[in-house]
Amino acid sequence: MKIIASDYDGTLNHGGIDDIKKTAIKRWRKAGNLFGLVSGRCASDLIELRRKNDFECDFLLASNGAVILNPEGEILAESRCDGKLAKPLLEFM
């Protein structure tokens, strides 16, 4: 088994996900491999994009990898910045 993941914006998606890409993802998964979607977008955006574009995947990595979800949107792992670090970062911005 092999695992591959693709960024969404500007990589997998160029104005939509065409049938060629959908077919390639299906073949990859049918061969026993895993396919994931990765983005800096939030989890709810990725779930909606997958549904809207009607393609299958095995996992979603949202928020630049801070949230890992299954295809149904169930959170499998999550990493958060604690408040002691977040506050100075927000003030800096």
Individual helix count: 3
Question: What is the radius of gyration computed over CA atoms, rounded to a whole number of angstroms?
Answer: 15 Å
Termini Cα gap: 43 Å
Tally the beta strands: 5
Order of helices and strands: EHEHEEEH
Mean pLDDT: 87
Describe the protein.
By secondary structure, this protein is an alpha/beta fold. 35% of the residues lie in helices and 23% in strands. Strands 1-2-3-4-5 form a 5-stranded mixed sheet. A hairpin with a 5-residue loop joins strand 4 and strand 5 (75-78). The model has no long low-confidence stretch (mean pLDDT 87).
Write a concise keyword list for the protein shown above:
alpha/beta, elongated, single chain, 23% strand, 3 helices
Q: Could you give a short description of this structure?
A:
This protein has 93 residues and is α/β, with parallel strands linked by helices.
